[in-house]
């Protein structure tokens, strides 16, 4: 368990409801009666691929000083001290109350990273409360409904954003399909992933896109062509959250959130900040994104830096899409495209089938195809295969191409489950994880990608011992 989260907020905002959801407890345990859920102070929690410990502050009331204010303050401070990250929860339906401000002050003073959760966001009239939440000075509120489980993906992303991917995932995320010892842990407490609550693919949720590439590849031109210059200059939702910048727009009616640095440098509001930004910041935008468009200058494609960027994106588990830009300057487009695609596949075998689209940011040609590729890749990145299907497939694979015997003993692969999405991650239960050759794992990964049509995204494969 890598980090501890305390859920802080005044009474009745929905802390216990969230606690129970994260801890995987039955919602029925939430009760207005004091004493319910008070027996345990912390619990293992899971939010998609994030594993952490959640501290229940509701349990502290009995042990603290006698005035109500004092008790609340004491419980809050204890929990904050213990935590690496604070979930600060407000009730968007009720709006801000004086107690919210008091608690927010304590949290701010602690200096701990905070994710601001605007709960009950599904309720009528929650919009006003959502706007008020900004006033707490704790950053952008995540619209949420603890009761209905709405906003969980955003909460997950906000956690990664607040703590940083390194802190959240540690070493075990630093692989590109290779099996590390720590990888085995990823699927450890996943008994039956099909039983867990997986939100359906949500088309109304903004897709998070970053645009990266070497200087002069054409990023700004592309972003302006996609969003429209005016929108960039005036977009009401555009703003700075920590060191990332995003702008909201729509493509074919679908909400998109674009993260970028260099490409937005013409945005006057944030000019100063942007001028200080470097390539490093561009890479930082990758962490906020789900899909990363790598803009290559087709006249000078695949320099070392391009491959480094691609490698980073894949290691971060994001899904890359390649734009071969300045296509208007290419003389023999068909031959060049075939050659570039072949080269792409060879240089980036970890994301076999990656989408690579010729475009001209200047004329706008190909940008619709690029966005189609982005949407397609996003869907794959979010895809989930049922355990039933996986194991029917595994049976035929094992029948035709069983794992090799090692030191005279046959390896037994028992079953296969998908432990996570975004990107797809699988757990293979087998008799001796250490003895499975890399080549066989690669074979399984490639066959799986083929069989379930998952081109162009990183696929994680972890091995664990079956009992
Ligand atoms: P706590 O005192 O902060 O731990 O709050 P609880 O989790 O006990 O929730 C207080 C009340 O708000 C309960 O009646 C919950 O059912 C309700 N509640 C919690 N989350 C939501 C939500 O997302 N939407 C709505 N409408 N009600 C909620
Ligand atoms: P950035 O540094 O990646 O943001 O690149 P810019 O968008 O500033 O573009 C760098 C240069 O390439 C500018 O002179 C653009 O006009 C030019 N450029 C961008 N896209 C295209 C394109 O599709 N075709 C051509 N011919 N030039 C382009």
TrEMBL record:
Keywords: GTP-binding, Hydrolase, Nucleotide-binding, Repeat, Ribosome biogenesis. GTP 2 binds at residues 213-220, 260-264, 325-328. The gene is der. CDD domains: EngA1, EngA2. NCBIfam families: GTPase_EngA (TIGR03594), small_GTP (TIGR00231). Associates with the 50S ribosomal subunit. GO terms for molecular function: hydrolase activity. It comes from Aquamicrobium soli. InterPro entries: G_ENGA (IPR031166), GTP-bd (IPR006073), GTPase_Der (IPR016484), KH_dom-like (IPR032859), KH_dom-like_a/b (IPR015946), P-loop_NTPase (IPR027417), Small_GTP-bd (IPR005225). The keyword Transcription regulation does not apply. Pfam families: KH_dom-like, MMR_HSR1. GTP 1 binds at residues 9-16, 56-60, 119-122. This is GTPase Der. SUPFAM superfamilies: P-loop containing nucleoside triphosphate hydrolases. GTPase that plays an essential role in the late steps of ribosome biogenesis. Residues 3-167, 207-382 form the EngA-type G domain. The keyword GTP-binding applies. Belongs to the TRAFAC class TrmE-Era-EngA-EngB-Septin-like GTPase superfamily. EngA (Der) GTPase family.
